[in-house]
Design brief:
The protein is mainly alpha-helical. It contains 11 helices and 2 strands, in the order ααααββααααααα.
Amino acid sequence: MIQHLVDGILVGSILSLGAIGLTMAMHMLRFANFSHAELLSIGAYCALVFDGVFTAVYAPLGNVIGPLSLTWALSLAILVSMAITGGSAILIDRLVFSRVRAKGGELSMVFASFGVAMIIRNALGLIFGLQVQLYSKDIVFATVLSRDPLLLVKPDQIFSLAAALFIMVIFHLMLSRTTFGYSLRAVAENPDLAQVSGINLNQMITLIWIIGGGLAAAAGVFYGLTNQVNPVLGRDLLLPIFAATIVGGIGSIYGAALGGFLVGIASNMALLILPSGYSPAMPFLIILVVLVIRPTGLFGEERA
């Protein structure tokens, strides 16, 4: 039981990063962006490419960091992938969503996001192939934290959890301690009122795409570091990320962070009573339960 709980927390940290960007975009633009999870795939593959580039340019960067499979090159590649993925999110908005937003309604935006998701997924498969890829082919053994009960955790998992929590803390400080954070939070909570107060809505939309893309990229890399990278990575994480967003409450940044951990823990704890083949159905069940009991989520509010 303890092992499943720990695994749920580790997975939940990745879902939280993905859900934060999704909840901001959904609340501000009022549409379910089904292409958001594909930003995780873009980030994962960008890190894979630049990991190889940095290692080729300066070989010592290929050395692993301590007990991790993470190299210095990959740690730099994570930062680059966050920037590129944020730029990709802006590009997608400029080429697709902004045009559909100007001419169509919310339902048109949803259909457009499905199309964007399919394009990105198939483009990644065409460029990188459909086979599974790994950041490192070295075998990393799990560390035994406890023998009674048995508790195994890989160093990469601990790093991913610590890095995800660090990013969320930095994001929290930005939201709570800076003028930019106040503006961003105001727009995420009530776009119309924020615009009346003099905040440039278009500029904030751009910044939210950048932040959402960057957080999604980090989530994608951490997932790939602890699992594997493939073109359907975004598809596999789409429902858990949406479940985390709905559980926390659409528009609530802190709710999305908490929702990610709750969904991760619930999905892994369900393995105690259900066969592993039913695990992908858990996000569906979580979404249904939350919508029935509290449609606005834990921290969500009614919108006009």
